Amino acid sequence: MQAIQIHHHGDPLLLTQCADLSVTDEDILIAVKVAGVNPVDTYIAAGSNGYTATFPHTPGKDAAGVIAALGSKVTGFKVGQRVYCSGSKTGTSAQFALATPAQVFPLADSLSFEQGACLGTPYATAWRALFIRANCQAGETVFIHGASGGVGLAALQLAKAAGCKVFTSASSEQGRALLQQQGTDLVVNHHDPEHYQSVKEAGAVDIILEMLANQNLGDDLPLLNVNGRVVVIGSRGQVEINPRDLMAKDACVMGIALANASPEQVTLIHEALFAAAEKGDISPVIAKRFELAETTEAHIAVMGSGATGNIVINVQE
Predict the structure, then answer these.
(1) pLDDT per residue over 134-180, tens digit each?
(2) What counts of helices (H) and strands (E) characterise the chain?
(3) What is the CA radius of gyration of the chain?
(4) CA–centroid distance for 105 within its chain
(5) Distances from the Cα of 245 to the Cαs of 81, 86, 211, 215, in angstroms?
(6) Selection from 106, 103, 130, 99 nearest residue 233 by Cα
(7) Angstrom distances, CA of residue 10 to CA of 155, 203, 294, 312
Protein backbone atom coordinates (compact mmCIF):
# COMPACT_ATOMS: atom_id res chain seq x y z
CA MET A 1 0.00 0.00 0.00
CA GLN A 2 1.00 3.65 -0.24
CA ALA A 3 1.58 5.71 2.88
CA ILE A 4 3.40 8.80 4.05
CA GLN A 5 6.33 7.79 6.25
CA ILE A 6 9.13 9.47 8.13
CA HIS A 7 11.99 7.90 10.08
CA HIS A 8 13.07 10.90 12.15
CA HIS A 9 11.40 14.06 13.43
CA GLY A 10 11.58 16.73 10.77
CA ASP A 11 12.02 14.33 7.84
CA PRO A 12 10.29 15.22 4.57
CA LEU A 13 6.79 13.74 4.38
CA LEU A 14 7.38 11.35 1.48
CA LEU A 15 4.92 9.02 -0.22
CA THR A 16 6.27 5.49 0.26
CA GLN A 17 5.35 2.01 -0.93
CA CYS A 18 4.83 0.02 2.28
CA ALA A 19 3.94 -3.53 3.22
CA ASP A 20 0.24 -4.24 3.58
CA LEU A 21 -1.10 -4.09 7.15
CA SER A 22 -1.90 -7.28 9.05
CA VAL A 23 -5.10 -7.44 11.07
CA THR A 24 -4.96 -8.99 14.54
CA ASP A 25 -7.97 -10.46 16.35
CA GLU A 26 -8.83 -7.08 17.88
CA ASP A 27 -8.15 -4.71 14.97
CA ILE A 28 -10.27 -2.90 12.42
CA LEU A 29 -8.70 -2.28 9.01
CA ILE A 30 -10.03 0.89 7.39
CA ALA A 31 -9.70 1.61 3.69
CA VAL A 32 -9.04 5.32 4.04
CA LYS A 33 -11.03 7.52 1.67
CA VAL A 34 -10.08 10.85 3.24
CA ALA A 35 -7.59 11.78 5.98
CA GLY A 36 -8.03 14.82 8.18
CA VAL A 37 -5.12 17.16 8.90
CA ASN A 38 -4.81 19.01 12.22
CA PRO A 39 -2.05 21.05 13.87
CA VAL A 40 -1.30 18.21 16.27
CA ASP A 41 -0.24 16.09 13.27
CA THR A 42 2.46 18.62 12.41
CA TYR A 43 3.62 18.81 16.04
CA ILE A 44 4.02 15.03 16.23
CA ALA A 45 5.88 14.81 12.92
CA ALA A 46 8.20 17.66 13.95
CA GLY A 47 8.66 16.45 17.54
CA SER A 48 7.62 19.89 18.82
CA ASN A 49 5.43 21.11 21.69
CA GLY A 50 6.27 18.04 23.76
CA TYR A 51 5.10 15.53 21.15
CA THR A 52 7.06 12.55 19.88
CA ALA A 53 6.48 9.53 17.66
CA THR A 54 7.50 5.92 17.15
CA PHE A 55 9.31 5.39 13.85
CA PRO A 56 8.68 4.75 11.06
CA HIS A 57 5.82 7.20 11.55
CA THR A 58 2.79 7.79 9.35
CA PRO A 59 1.15 11.09 10.35
CA GLY A 60 -2.54 11.61 10.93
CA LYS A 61 -5.06 10.81 13.64
CA ASP A 62 -8.32 11.34 11.74
CA ALA A 63 -9.80 9.62 8.71
CA ALA A 64 -13.02 8.42 7.15
CA GLY A 65 -13.51 5.42 4.93
CA VAL A 66 -14.97 1.93 4.87
CA ILE A 67 -14.11 -1.14 6.91
CA ALA A 68 -11.96 -3.47 4.79
CA ALA A 69 -11.44 -6.22 7.38
CA LEU A 70 -12.31 -7.08 10.98
CA GLY A 71 -10.42 -9.05 13.60
CA SER A 72 -12.15 -12.20 14.80
CA LYS A 73 -12.88 -10.72 18.22
CA VAL A 74 -14.34 -7.43 16.95
CA THR A 75 -18.10 -7.01 17.33
CA GLY A 76 -20.53 -4.23 16.50
CA PHE A 77 -19.03 -3.45 13.09
CA LYS A 78 -19.26 -5.00 9.62
CA VAL A 79 -17.06 -5.08 6.54
CA GLY A 80 -18.05 -2.34 4.09
CA GLN A 81 -19.46 -0.07 6.81
CA ARG A 82 -18.88 3.69 6.50
CA VAL A 83 -16.84 4.83 9.50
CA TYR A 84 -14.48 7.49 10.78
CA CYS A 85 -11.68 7.20 13.29
CA SER A 86 -10.36 9.40 16.04
CA GLY A 87 -6.85 8.08 16.39
CA SER A 88 -5.38 4.92 14.90
CA LYS A 89 -2.59 2.45 15.48
CA THR A 90 -0.75 3.10 12.22
CA GLY A 91 -1.51 6.66 11.07
CA THR A 92 -4.14 7.84 8.62
CA SER A 93 -2.10 9.46 5.85
CA ALA A 94 -2.16 6.15 4.04
CA GLN A 95 -4.38 4.00 1.85
CA PHE A 96 -5.18 1.77 4.84
CA ALA A 97 -5.08 2.26 8.60
CA LEU A 98 -5.41 -0.08 11.56
CA ALA A 99 -7.46 1.07 14.53
CA THR A 100 -8.93 -0.37 17.70
CA PRO A 101 -12.73 -0.60 18.03
CA ALA A 102 -12.56 2.20 20.63
CA GLN A 103 -11.12 4.51 17.94
CA VAL A 104 -13.74 3.80 15.26
CA PHE A 105 -17.25 5.25 14.95
CA PRO A 106 -20.11 4.95 12.47
CA LEU A 107 -20.30 7.77 9.94
CA ALA A 108 -23.77 9.30 9.59
CA ASP A 109 -25.26 9.04 6.11
CA SER A 110 -25.74 12.81 6.12
CA LEU A 111 -21.97 13.39 6.05
CA SER A 112 -19.49 12.81 3.23
CA PHE A 113 -16.17 11.05 3.74
CA GLU A 114 -14.47 14.46 3.60
CA GLN A 115 -16.70 15.71 6.40
CA GLY A 116 -16.23 12.51 8.37
CA ALA A 117 -12.47 13.04 8.32
CA CYS A 118 -13.05 16.29 10.25
CA LEU A 119 -14.89 14.78 13.21
CA GLY A 120 -12.24 12.90 15.16
CA THR A 121 -10.17 15.85 16.41
CA PRO A 122 -11.93 19.17 15.61
CA TYR A 123 -15.50 18.24 16.52
CA ALA A 124 -14.58 16.01 19.45
CA THR A 125 -12.36 18.80 20.84
CA ALA A 126 -15.12 21.39 20.43
CA TRP A 127 -17.74 19.14 22.06
CA ARG A 128 -15.51 18.29 25.01
CA ALA A 129 -14.49 21.94 25.47
CA LEU A 130 -18.07 23.18 25.47
CA PHE A 131 -20.04 20.52 27.27
CA ILE A 132 -17.57 18.66 29.47
CA ARG A 133 -14.97 21.25 30.43
CA ALA A 134 -17.12 24.42 30.35
CA ASN A 135 -20.48 22.77 31.15
CA CYS A 136 -22.14 24.95 28.52
CA GLN A 137 -25.86 25.55 29.01
CA ALA A 138 -28.63 26.82 26.74
CA GLY A 139 -29.01 30.59 26.94
CA GLU A 140 -25.36 31.28 27.71
CA THR A 141 -23.12 33.50 25.59
CA VAL A 142 -20.04 31.89 24.05
CA PHE A 143 -17.14 33.81 22.49
CA ILE A 144 -14.98 31.72 20.15
CA HIS A 145 -11.75 33.69 19.77
CA GLY A 146 -10.31 32.52 16.45
CA ALA A 147 -13.34 30.69 15.12
CA SER A 148 -12.79 30.17 11.40
CA GLY A 149 -10.66 27.01 11.72
CA GLY A 150 -11.88 23.46 12.15
CA VAL A 151 -12.38 23.51 15.92
CA GLY A 152 -13.87 27.00 15.94
CA LEU A 153 -16.45 26.25 13.27
CA ALA A 154 -17.35 23.02 15.03
CA ALA A 155 -17.84 24.91 18.29
CA LEU A 156 -19.98 27.54 16.57
CA GLN A 157 -22.30 24.91 15.10
CA LEU A 158 -22.52 22.96 18.36
CA ALA A 159 -23.10 26.02 20.55
CA LYS A 160 -25.82 27.37 18.27
CA ALA A 161 -27.53 23.98 18.25
CA ALA A 162 -27.42 24.01 22.06
CA GLY A 163 -29.31 27.30 22.21
CA CYS A 164 -26.43 29.66 22.93
CA LYS A 165 -25.68 33.15 21.70
CA VAL A 166 -22.32 32.98 19.93
CA PHE A 167 -19.76 35.71 19.32
CA THR A 168 -16.78 34.93 17.08
CA SER A 169 -13.57 36.43 15.74
CA ALA A 170 -11.47 35.83 12.64
CA SER A 171 -8.58 37.67 11.03
CA SER A 172 -9.52 37.42 7.36
CA GLU A 173 -12.47 38.88 5.50
CA GLN A 174 -13.20 35.42 4.07
CA GLY A 175 -13.16 33.91 7.54
CA ARG A 176 -15.56 36.51 8.91
CA ALA A 177 -17.91 36.02 5.95
CA LEU A 178 -17.90 32.27 6.60
CA LEU A 179 -18.74 32.81 10.27
CA GLN A 180 -21.65 35.05 9.33
CA GLN A 181 -22.85 32.39 6.92
CA GLN A 182 -22.65 29.84 9.73
CA GLY A 183 -24.96 31.92 11.94
CA THR A 184 -22.73 33.75 14.39
CA ASP A 185 -24.50 36.50 16.37
CA LEU A 186 -21.45 38.78 16.22
CA VAL A 187 -18.19 38.56 14.33
CA VAL A 188 -15.15 40.78 14.89
CA ASN A 189 -11.69 41.12 13.38
CA HIS A 190 -9.23 40.04 16.05
CA HIS A 191 -6.45 42.00 14.34
CA ASP A 192 -8.38 45.16 15.18
CA PRO A 193 -7.31 46.46 18.62
CA GLU A 194 -10.90 47.61 19.19
CA HIS A 195 -12.43 44.16 18.80
CA TYR A 196 -12.48 43.54 22.55
CA GLN A 197 -14.54 46.68 23.01
CA SER A 198 -16.99 45.50 20.35
CA VAL A 199 -17.47 42.21 22.16
CA LYS A 200 -17.81 43.95 25.53
CA GLU A 201 -20.50 46.25 24.17
CA ALA A 202 -22.44 43.23 22.86
CA GLY A 203 -22.77 41.78 26.35
CA ALA A 204 -20.90 39.82 29.01
CA VAL A 205 -19.58 36.43 27.97
CA ASP A 206 -20.13 33.22 29.91
CA ILE A 207 -17.67 31.01 28.03
CA ILE A 208 -14.61 31.86 25.94
CA LEU A 209 -12.96 29.24 23.76
CA GLU A 210 -9.43 30.50 23.21
CA MET A 211 -7.31 29.29 20.29
CA LEU A 212 -4.24 31.48 20.94
CA ALA A 213 -4.02 32.00 24.67
CA ASN A 214 -0.46 33.33 24.68
CA GLN A 215 -1.68 36.36 22.76
CA ASN A 216 -5.24 36.85 23.99
CA LEU A 217 -5.83 35.45 27.47
CA GLY A 218 -5.02 38.59 29.44
CA ASP A 219 -7.49 40.60 27.37
CA ASP A 220 -10.14 37.87 27.38
CA LEU A 221 -10.69 37.89 31.13
CA PRO A 222 -12.35 41.34 31.46
CA LEU A 223 -15.03 40.16 29.00
CA LEU A 224 -16.31 37.47 31.36
CA ASN A 225 -19.63 37.37 33.14
CA VAL A 226 -19.88 36.27 36.78
CA ASN A 227 -18.91 32.56 36.94
CA GLY A 228 -17.37 32.88 33.48
CA ARG A 229 -15.10 30.19 32.09
CA VAL A 230 -12.22 30.30 29.63
CA VAL A 231 -11.22 27.05 27.93
CA VAL A 232 -7.72 27.17 26.46
CA ILE A 233 -7.69 25.08 23.28
CA GLY A 234 -4.51 26.50 21.74
CA SER A 235 -1.42 28.37 22.88
CA ARG A 236 2.05 28.91 21.45
CA GLY A 237 3.85 30.50 24.39
CA GLN A 238 3.51 32.27 27.71
CA VAL A 239 1.11 35.04 28.70
CA GLU A 240 0.67 37.49 31.56
CA ILE A 241 -2.76 37.91 33.18
CA ASN A 242 -4.23 39.91 36.04
CA PRO A 243 -5.67 37.38 38.53
CA ARG A 244 -8.01 40.07 39.87
CA ASP A 245 -9.98 39.74 36.64
CA LEU A 246 -10.76 36.20 37.74
CA MET A 247 -11.41 37.10 41.37
CA ALA A 248 -13.87 39.85 40.51
CA LYS A 249 -16.10 37.47 38.51
CA ASP A 250 -15.58 34.15 40.35
CA ALA A 251 -14.23 33.09 36.97
CA CYS A 252 -11.83 30.35 35.99
CA VAL A 253 -9.41 29.37 33.24
CA MET A 254 -9.07 25.74 32.26
CA GLY A 255 -7.21 23.80 29.63
CA ILE A 256 -8.25 20.97 27.38
CA ALA A 257 -6.38 18.12 25.75
CA LEU A 258 -8.49 15.61 23.86
CA ALA A 259 -6.06 12.88 24.88
CA ASN A 260 -7.29 13.29 28.48
CA ALA A 261 -10.85 12.21 27.60
CA SER A 262 -11.86 9.07 29.47
CA PRO A 263 -13.30 6.10 27.54
CA GLU A 264 -16.73 7.06 28.87
CA GLN A 265 -16.30 10.62 27.62
CA VAL A 266 -15.14 9.41 24.20
CA THR A 267 -18.28 7.29 23.87
CA LEU A 268 -20.48 10.17 24.98
CA ILE A 269 -18.84 12.64 22.60
CA HIS A 270 -19.13 10.50 19.49
CA GLU A 271 -22.67 9.39 20.23
CA ALA A 272 -23.58 13.07 20.55
CA LEU A 273 -21.81 13.92 17.28
CA PHE A 274 -23.65 11.15 15.44
CA ALA A 275 -26.98 12.43 16.77
CA ALA A 276 -26.06 16.01 15.83
CA ALA A 277 -25.16 14.93 12.30
CA GLU A 278 -28.43 13.01 11.96
CA LYS A 279 -30.36 16.14 13.05
CA GLY A 280 -28.42 18.35 10.65
CA ASP A 281 -26.88 20.39 13.47
CA ILE A 282 -23.30 19.89 12.28
CA SER A 283 -21.79 20.10 8.82
CA PRO A 284 -17.98 20.31 8.62
CA VAL A 285 -16.63 22.91 6.20
CA ILE A 286 -13.76 21.92 3.93
CA ALA A 287 -11.30 24.75 3.25
CA LYS A 288 -8.62 22.97 1.21
CA ARG A 289 -8.19 19.56 -0.37
CA PHE A 290 -4.90 17.81 -1.12
CA GLU A 291 -3.77 14.49 -2.57
CA LEU A 292 -1.74 11.99 -0.54
CA ALA A 293 1.47 12.98 -2.33
CA GLU A 294 0.79 16.59 -1.27
CA THR A 295 0.78 15.87 2.48
CA THR A 296 3.63 18.34 3.06
CA GLU A 297 1.55 21.13 1.53
CA ALA A 298 -1.41 20.06 3.68
CA HIS A 299 0.70 20.31 6.84
CA ILE A 300 1.87 23.78 5.83
CA ALA A 301 -1.69 24.88 5.11
CA VAL A 302 -3.07 23.74 8.47
CA MET A 303 -0.53 25.92 10.29
CA GLY A 304 -1.22 29.00 8.18
CA SER A 305 -3.22 32.04 9.23
CA GLY A 306 -6.62 33.04 7.90
CA ALA A 307 -8.28 29.63 8.24
CA THR A 308 -11.64 29.03 6.59
CA GLY A 309 -12.42 25.48 7.63
CA ASN A 310 -10.77 22.06 7.66
CA ILE A 311 -7.84 20.66 5.69
CA VAL A 312 -8.27 17.18 4.20
CA ILE A 313 -6.29 14.72 2.10
CA ASN A 314 -8.21 12.72 -0.50
CA VAL A 315 -6.58 9.30 -0.45
CA GLN A 316 -8.77 6.96 -2.51
CA GLU A 317 -11.65 7.50 -4.91
Answers:
(1) 999 999 999 999 999 999 999 999 999 999 999 999 999 999 999 99
(2) 10, 15
(3) 20
(4) 16
(5) 51, 37, 20, 17
(6) 130
(7) 31, 45, 16, 21
